[in-house]
Amino acid sequence: MFDYFKKARAKLIEAFEKMPNEEFTKSRGLSFESIKDVFVHTAMVEDNWLHYRFAGLGPSTSHKFQDFKNIEDVKKYIAEVDAKTAKLFGRITNQDLRKSFKRSLPDGKEEVLELEQVLYHVPFEIIYHYGEIFAEFWRMKVDAPYYSYLAYSREKAT
Q1: pLDDT number for residue 80
Q2: Which of 23, 94, 117, 151 has its CA 20 to 30 A from that of 145?
Q3: How far apart are CA 29 and CA 128, in angstroms?
Q4: Which domain holds residue 48?
């Protein structure tokens, strides 16, 4: 799934590169301020859950949305996250899937999660926000770069 999202993300990046930076960073009233921020959030979700919370480094990266001024800044961050994720997947074991860690909730309570749960959560979060970006593209009358999992599977098989 993570490989699929990496390929789908590359198609979104191609679309963003064709878009004026003002459109990419414009306030749109989405779940996050701009298309850029929604897209950065998807990378932060992966980074925060897999490379901070699970690794025991704290709840989140120190990056803020305002650190990213354009698609080049975003691509650099995504490359860093991709490298960390590839390294993690290169060493992860079945036992690691059962490793648990705590997360503080907004009401002050804590929940305990296993890595396996998070490996489901991250793709679902990404799907949600990619759909949000696609809806905004359609509102803007921009063709969204749809890339189905079935198309990915066919390409991977050849």
Answers
A1: 96
A2: 117
A3: 16
A4: 2-157
